[in-house]
Amino acid sequence: MEKQLHETILYPDVSFPYIMYTHTIHESFPKGRGFNDLHWHEELQITLVTKGKLVIQVNGIDHELDTGQAILINKGVLHVTTQLSHNGQYVSFNFPEKLLAFYADSAMEKNYVLPYTNSSLVSLVIKGDVEWQIQILQMLWEMKQKFDMKKKWGWEYEVSIKTAQLWLILISNISLSSEEAPKYVKIQQERLQLMLSFIHQNYTNNITLQEIAAIAHLSVSECTRSFKRTIHMTPYDYLIKYRIKKSSELLTSTQYTITEIAHKVGFNHVNHFIQSFKKHYKKTPKEFQKFRNDFMIKE
């Protein structure tokens, strides 16, 4: 199945829609969107750095986090982890806003949830500079411990209660007027999501810059500016990068030849594919394939 820009989170237990991912550079557990994988989802996300240093890009802005620091990312916001120190690790708590509302149309939902999740609030960095942030970080460590143990009776209640307490502390200490991004930022993000999704769905075809721009009803120049402003590359560069990413998956999971893979991910010329691949991975497709296969055998 194709990996889409919009992530639909698969919860281990659908009766408790809450998940904690543990990420390193090489893997995510449970299997999910990990390191250097641009995406967005309908759930709220709180990421805690448990080891090393992390750079996470949210709506085009880089945030550097050290061990013990965290970031809240609002629903529907584009984000990607771009840098992680050697042997670094981070966890991401993902949960739907309805968990904070207790039930539909509640006073909590109307007064304390939707005004924030439906706002232009993009993200909030929690570094522990003030007392309320220290409280939140401590609660995140406690939540991680509960997810790690899991088998303890009533752990779902404990995690839910802790999350609601954390949310109350957070909204009690921020001002939407100062934390919200300008309204036009949300519009720009929605347009970019349309264009990125179009690339993800059509990367195997000969798509043009004009077609990408047309999806969001933009001129070619504004389309290019939108990409550069938010993900710091041109639409063409992103298309090539995505094709290379998809080719790396085929190289390690199929028996296709290099030529077949090049054509399957949208390259018309094998030499262009090999050059682009080497520029991205510092290895030819063949070298990458051998390296990954040897690595998997050692594991």
TrEMBL record:
It holds the Pfam family HTH_18. The keyword Zinc does not apply. The lineage of its organism: Bacteria, Bacillati, Bacillota, Bacilli, Bacillales. Gene3D superfamilies: Homeodomain-like, Jelly Rolls. Residues 193-291 form the HTH araC/xylS-type domain. One of its GO terms (molecular function) is sequence-specific DNA binding. SMART domains: HTH_ARAC. This is AraC family transcriptional regulator. Keywords: DNA-binding, Transcription, Transcription regulation. It comes from Paenibacillus polymyxa (strain SC2) (Bacillus polymyxa).
